[in-house]
From TrEMBL:
Record's keyword terms, sorted: Hydrolase, Metal-binding, Metalloprotease, Protease, Zinc
InterPro entries xrefs: Fungal_M35_metalloproteases, Lys_MEP, MetalloPept_cat_dom_sf
Annotated protein name in UniProt: Lysine-specific metallo-endopeptidase domain-containing protein
Domain called Lysine-specific metallo-endopeptidase: residue spans: 256-388
Length: 395
C-alpha cells in the first residue's frame, strides 16, 4: 500500500497539486485504491508428483492451491478446475523435452461434464464450494492413470511435464452477493515425472461420487418412447427422461433445420459461434445432423449422486449418459434445461461432434464466440445454447 501512495503523491507534486488540502484528499483516494487492490482475489498454484513411476496406475499428482490474497475465498468446485477430482481434462501432459505449451499433449481419455456455475451458486449447498481463508492452502490429489493415454500417440516411456491447463487454473470466486469472478492462478512448480513399465491404466469406470453403482443392467423404459434404456431410475425420473429425450431430439432437428435453410449469418449464429465462416458452418451443421434422431435411443443412468453436475459422459461409452442432481432441478426447456443437457452431452461423443468444455454458461460462451469462434464451434455449451435458443434469437 505504501508504494501505491508514494507513486500517487509523486504524480500529484509533478502536476502541481501540492497544497495540504490537495495532498490530504489524494492520500485518502490512494488509500482506498490500495485497499481495493489488496482485497482483490489472488491465488497461487503448484503441482507436485513422484519423480518416477514404473506403473502408470500409480501416477498421482497433487495440486496445491493457496489463497495469496487478504480475504477468504469461496470457490466453486468447477469440475474442470484442479479443485475437482473428477476425471476431466484439467492437465496438459506432454514430453518434458517438448515445448510444454505448444508440444503435443497426450490424448485425453476421461469424461466430459455439463455444469453451470450460476446453477451451483443458486443451489448454495456447502459441498459445491471450497472455502480457503487468506494465507491458507488446499491440496487436491488427482489420479491420471485413466485420464490420459501414455501408451498412445505422443506417449511411451520417458519423462513428462504435467501442468494445469489454462481452463483448470482459472477459479470461480463467489462474492457475498452471489456474483462470480474469474481468478486465474499464478503457476509456480510444475510436476516432472519419469514414466516406465506399464503404460496403460485401468479403464475408467463410474466412481462412487458419480454413480452409486454400475452393476445393474439397463432396462427398457416404458412410455411414449420405447427405445430409451434406463438404469437406477424411478418412475418420475423415467418420465422426465422420456420427455427430455424427445425434446432434445426436436431441438437438434430445429438447430439443423435453421442452419440448413438459412440465412446463415444471423444474430443467433453470431451469438454462439461468432462471425460467419463457411468451414465453421459446415462443421457445426454436421454436428447437429449427426445428433438428430438419436437422443431417444440413448442409455440413461440415474445413479449419479453429485448435486453440482447436470450430467456426464465417457467418450468411449457411446450413447451412455449419466444424469446428476442439477439435471432433475432444471426446467424441461429453456436455458440450461433437461433437453438442452442431453444435446450438450450428445455433442461430446466423437461419433457425433467430439466437443469439449471450453466454456460454461451463456456469458462465457458469448465471450468465446467473439474471441475464439473456432473453439466455440467445438464447445458443448455453445451447441446447447444455440439449440435451446433462449433468449429467442430467431426460428
Amino acid at each position: 500500500m505504501g508504494s501505491i501512495l508514494r507513486v500517487i503523491r509523486t504524480l500529484a507534486v509533478a502536476y502541481g497539486l501540492c497544497s495540504r488540502h490537495d495532498l490530504y484528499y489524494i492520500s485518502r483516494i490512494g488509500s482506498r485504491i490500495a485497499g481495493i487492490a489488496s482485497a482483490a482475489p489472488s491465488i497461487s498454484l503448484n503441482t507436485f508428483g513422484p519423480s518416477s513411476v514404473s506403473d502408470v496406475s500409480a501416477l498421482k499428482i497433487i495440486t496445491s492451491i493457496k489463497n495469496t490474497g487478504t480475504e477468504t475465498l469461496r470457490l466453486l468446485n468447477d469440475p474442470n478446475s484442479v479443485l475437482s477430482t473428477w476425471e476431466t481434462d484439467s492437465f496438459h501432459v506432454a514430453r518434458a523435452d517438448s515445448n510444454l505449451v505448444a508440444g503435443p499433449a497426450l490424448n485425453f481419455t476421461g469424461l466430459r461434464v455439463k455444469y453451470s456455475p450460476t446453477a451451483a451458486v443458486k443451489a448454495g449447498k456447502p459441498e459445491l464450494f471450497t472455502v480457503i481463508p487468506a494465507g491458507a492452502t488446499v491440496n487436491i490429489t488427482h489420479s491420471l492413470a485413466s485420464t490420459y493415454d501414455f501408451s498412445g500417440k505422443g506417449g511411451g516411456a520417458g519423462k513428462y511435464k504435467l501442468k494445469a491447463s489454462t481452463r483448470a487454473k482459472t477459479f470461480l470466486s463467489v462474492g457475498a452477493d452471489g456474483s462470480i469472478t474469474s481468478v486465474e492462478a499464478s503457476e509456480g512448480t510444475v510436476a516432472e515425472v519419469a514414466v516406465s513399465g506399464r503404460l496403460s491404466g485401468p479403464k475408467l469406470q463410474p466412481s462412487a461420487k458419480g454413480a452409486a453403482h454400475d452393476t445393474g443392467a439397463f432396462q427398457q423404459a416404458s412410455g411414449k418412447s420405447k427405445r430409451a434404456l434406463v438404469r437406477g431410475c424411478n418412475d418420475p425420473q423415467i418420465n422426465d427422461i422420456l420427455t427430455a429425450a424427445d425434446r432434445a431430439n426436436n431441438m437438434a432437428h430445429g438447430a439443423h433445420g435453421f442452419l440448413r435453410d438459412g440465412p446463415w449469418a444471423t444474430r443467433r449464429w453470431q451469438e454462439w459461434f461468432g462471425g460467419w465462416d463457411q468451414n465453421r458452418y459446415n462443421l457445426v451443421f454436421g454436428h447437429y445432423d449427426a445428433i438428430r434422431f438419436n437422443p431417444p435411443n440413448f442409455l440413461y443412468d440415474c445413479t449419479c449422486t453429485d448435486d453440482g453436475l447436470y450430467a456426464y459422459v465417457y467418450t468411449d461409452r457411446f450413447q451412455e449418459v449419466f444424469l446428476c442432481g442439477a439435471f432433475w432441478r432444471a426446467p424441461m426447456e429453456g436455458t440450461d434445461s433437461k433437453a438442452g443437457t442431453i444435446v450438450h452431452e450428445a455433442s461430446h461423443f466423437p461419433q457425433y461432434a467430439g466437443t469439449a468444455d471450453h466454456a460454461y454458461g451463456q456469458g462465457a460462451c458469448r465471450d468465446l464466440a467473439r474471441n475464439d469462434p473456432n473453439r466455440a464451434a467445438m464447445n458443448a455449451d455453445s451447441h446447447e445454447y444455440f439449440a435451446e435458443n433462449q433468449p429467442w434469437l430467431g426460428q
